[in-house]
## 1
Amino acid sequence: MYSKEQASQLKQAFWTAFGQYLKPQLSADGLRTNWVNYKTGVKHLYFKMEADKRSAFIAIEMSHPDADIQQLMFDQFIELKNILNGQLDEEWEWQLHTTDEYNKTVSRIIKTLPGVSVFNQADWPALISFFKPRIIALDEFWSMAQYSFDLFR
């Protein structure tokens, strides 16, 4: 078992390695991008990647404090579902009004990879292979779809 400090350092090492690995990859718009902390430009709308000791996930997360506005954002993604699924080339799980690790109400479109640990460096290639194509696909989707969310800016 790792101390809190060691666990934090291992997670930081993974995300640093992932960021370095993707650094040469330009966005769909041809720009340099911070892939680990991807900015959508819309408040309360995030592309989130997480990895812990049991699994990893990548998600589009809507965290607006107003549940009705959160639902409007979610509905806008439903309108774009065929485009999103085409870009991702797979189905993700759609969760309206679920709770996050802080017990806050969020809505997510999420893909999970079970059975991996960020604390096991032997799993890092699997984690990178999971995250990389999906964050790039989300960026390509967002390059086209972001204008549909201008009313939330």
## 2
Amino acid sequence: MIEKLRLTTRFVDDQDEALRFYTEKLGLVKKADESFGPDNRWVTVAPEQDETVEIVLELPDWSEDEEEADRRAALVGEQPALAFTVDDCHATYEILRERGVEFTSEPQEQPYGIEAVARDLYGNGVVLVERPSETETT
């Protein structure tokens, strides 16, 4: 049976630019950066405390199939949001805003916790969610 999510992919126009954004702006850590031949590179990032899932920063044209590469290129900036759990949404919002991350909504109370929504450098959503503590929900 399926046990856990291991990888998710974010198609990007420039792996170095995306790597800088996800590490320097969002504070994720680089997990892998491997070259495969002259034109392919495997780059992943993840939250420092998350040992289960990594985000692959992949160029759309990695596919040998031209039609598939075109389909992937059209997804740059149109991908579903990545949602991250944070310990303090207000503090994380301020830190990321000071680093130049663009937010589309400030931290707001939601039924599931406090949420703020940002954009990555391509316009994809980056959601920050602070879950209510156990003492607040009981």
## 3
Amino acid sequence: MTTQPIDIGIPESERLAIAEGLSRLLADTYTLYLKTHYYHWNVTGPMFNSLHLMFETQYNELALAVDAVAERIRSLGAKAPGTYQAFARLTVIPEDTDAPKAQQMIANLVAGQEAVVRTARSLFPLVDGAQDEATADLLTQRIQLHEKTAWMLRSLLE
């Protein structure tokens, strides 16, 4: 059985390059999801309740984002990465070896949110050159959300 060629107005080489970039975004998003969920389970201290609930809201949003990014990769005709090994190779977000104190959790999540923004922003030259408005729209939405979340987390560190 042969597959139907994809003809969405973006040449295959550009589609695959965009999908490769989105795979890095997916890895960063999933790694940040895991980190945020881990912190949700393990946060302690006087800010426990507010941080526990905030982290839950954040990891739920990240779970939806993972799906949106993966589906865009598939729409471009590529396979979305989905293993820990692939995500570890593609992400720039470091893994924790133990549960830090609450303030360090917040600082780590700020760094993670900002890393996702940088990864998303780095794709714009390629996406714009291919006139891939759908991916540009996804990236813009992701950047806006991650920048806002980083700001909210950063405000807790003052």
